[in-house]
Amino acid sequence: MDTETRAAAPSVTSASPSTVAAAPRPRWRLRGNPLAGLGSLVWLVIVVVPIYTMISSSLMRQDEALDGDPLAFPTHPTLDNYNTVLHSGFFTLLSNTAIVAVATVAIVVVLSVPVAYVAVRTRNRWSSLAFRVFLLGVAIPAQAVIVPLYLLIGKMGLYDTLPAIILPTAAFAMPVAVLVLSGTMRDVSEELYEAMALDGATPLRMLVQLAVPLSKAGISTVAIFSALQAWNGFLFPLILTQSEEKHVLTLGLFNFMSQFGVNIPAVLAAVVLSVVPIFAVYLVARRALINGLMGVGGK
């Protein structure tokens, strides 16, 4: 009896390694996706080539930019084009644009956070209807209301001022901001609200101490998108301002094309200088932007 048991044991032990060795491995992990790689490469070329051409051409002389290869690096790089742009009122354009962007972000964040909170926490038919009507602003293009907006700005005495740019820009950024923040605040656990309510917290305290800290990623996303919208805005500055002292970068670039004529390197130098600040902001805040878009945040 003992002999049979001892003889059977090695057979079981010897079968285990072969069984483990024969187990198939998940082969899908070893497979690549050539179409995805090719698509990524094509997208990289589409993004990088225009940026490289813009920077290299801004370092060229006028004759070299017109007669040379746009993809070739300049034979004699020069910063004269940047010097020309910097002495053509560029810093005034930059400061006006920064003021518009910062003010727009402040207005959008301060107003959209409580609106989104009320839309999420107030559960009745009227709040739901008001939220849907508010989001209709996403579907209304600025071009459709530019004439009544022009008349309204004129009657308010704001024509040819920076608030004439700031207020409409913030108004058109609000619907998207509320949409993003309401989605972020819905992810906050209901148990946390109930716990604070049991402690006697008011709605304002729950907003400040609970909803806002857990919605930092969404707030950062809203701030970045609002800043980009204000930085790249062209229609409102074109229609609602007139004097050069109130021009922003987008309108200044448009005027540079007329001022410098066919001086392509100078125009591209102005474009490079206008992109640098907002690109720096993106590099600093890219993690918060990605987290906000993915809806993960820091919760």
UniProtKB/TrEMBL annotation:
Gene3D superfamilies found in the cross-reference section: MetI-like
Family: Belongs to the binding-protein-dependent transport system permease family.
Subcellular location per the Swiss-Prot or TrEMBL entry: Cell membrane
CDD domains assigned: TM_PBP2
Keywords: Cell membrane, Membrane, Transmembrane, Transmembrane helix, Transport
Location (main, coarse): membrane
GO biological process: transmembrane transport
Membrane association type: Multi-pass membrane protein
Domain of life: Bacteria
The keyword Membrane is annotated on this UniProt entry: yes
Domain ABC transmembrane type-1: 94-285
Cellular component GO terms, alphabetical: plasma membrane
Protein name according to UniProt: Carbohydrate ABC transporter permease
Residue ranges of the TM segments: 35-55, 98-120, 129-153, 165-185, 206-228, 264-285
Keyword Transmembrane attributed: yes
Pfam families: BPD_transp_1
